[in-house]
Specification:
Layout (H helix, E strand, L loop, with lengths): L1 E3 L2 E3 L15 E4 L2 E5 L2 E8 L7 E4 L6 E5 L6 E2 L8 E2 H7 L4 H4 L4 E4 L2 E5 L3 E2 L11 E8 L4
Antiparallel strand pairs: 1-2, 3-7, 4-5, 5-13, 6-13, 7-10, 8-9, 10-11, 11-12
Length: 143
Amino acid sequence: MKKQYKNIWIEKEKKDKLEKVNKVVTEKIPFKIIFNSYIVEAMEDNKSFGKNEFLTNLKIGDTIEIRMRKDGDKIRPLGMESYKKLKDIFINEKVPKDLRGEIPLILKDDEIVWASGVKKSESFKGEENKKGIKLIIRRQDEE
């Protein structure tokens, strides 16, 4: 039985479910990689749309790290001066508990740039209509 916010349901346990590997990938911008069940891409652009894209102030040649969350991770959310725990953000955004550990985090110099599809960082936001690096995330089955 599973409970998620206002919903309760019974789910058959999947024995053959593969464990997500908590790997760390380091890439130089621009790139396009498959990270677990996601496609993560970074390219030069001047616009971004929706929660699955983020226009940043990163530059071509910058080295970024992609990994899953760790205890104590913090991000400075868009529009805020202070940092907030990623755990609290996932709870407030109603991200299901079993998916929280699967969401790729994009980091530069050990600071979270983007909790992919969930929260963007004020420290790395780019200016609209000005060239920057656009980060894109999508599930592998959406391609």
